[in-house]
Specification:
The chain is of the alpha/beta class and 208 residues long. The chain is built from three helices and 23 strands. Helices cover 15% and strands 25% of the residues.
């Protein structure tokens, strides 16, 4: 499959290495709105995102949005889908993914990710290095589970939620859409949509 990547920043470089380690051919290029963009290592800059439609018309079948911003990654991924691009999910060879788990289109499982039995991961999700998403979890579209974070069994993340580095979430808890769980937090209770929590145990940020 001929593939174009969106985004030439740090996450783009990380995703490119996942593709290479997994045996995918290099992308035909990367689209990035920064006019000073130099592309990715070994992958040329093809211009701004507005060129996506022309690339699809020219026979490029696949695309992947490698951007850290949850809302923008999901929005652009959905736009590319409407243009007719295939949005494959990528998994590093070291990721451990249960046979009955699901990784949605446009999502990526970085090195040493664990995705447990019957876990369901939606579209345009980042499962970052070494995170654990245990059995029966539901991760909705556009989320990011940061390096080393752990979701206990049956945790549910609403669309666009962010779970910070080394955070832990108690089994069965619900993290609302757009919520942010801070680095190293220990989440023992449900988190409302759009809330920001941190600490051990996790509390609303700014609370004494």
């Amino acid at each position: 499959m001929r593939l174009v990547m969106i985004g030439a920043g740090g996450h783009g470089r990380a995703v490119l290495e996942v593709l290479r380690d997994a045996g995918w051919p290099d992308p035909v290029g990367v689209l990035d709105d920064d006019p000073a963009c130099r592309g990715l290592p070994g992958v040329p800059h093809l211009g701004p995102l507005a060129r996506a439609a022309a690339l699809r018309a020219g026979g490029v079948e696949g695309a992947h949005v490698a951007l850290g911003d949850n809302a923008r990654r999901r929005r652009l991924g959905e736009e590319l889908g409407r243009l007719g691009f295939t949005l494959p999910a990528f998994r590093h060879p070291s990721a451990v993914i249960a046979r009955n788990a699901a990784l949605g289109p446009g999502s990526v499982a970085m090195p040493r990710v664990v995705l447990g039995a019957m876990a369901r991961v939606g579209a345009h999700v980042i499962l970052n290095t070494g995170c654990i998403v245990e059995h029966d979890c539901v991760v909705e579209a556009g989320c990011h589970v940061a390096p080393g974070a752990v979701l206990g069994g049956g945790v549910a993340l609403g669309a666009g939620a962010m779970v910070g580095i080394l955070a832990g979430i108690r089994p069965g808890r619900r993290i609302g859409a757009g919520a942010v769980v801070g680095m190293g937090a220990a989440v023992l209770e449900d988190v409302p949509p759009a809330a920001r929590v941190g600490g051990v145990p996790a509390r609303p940020l700014g609370e004494g």
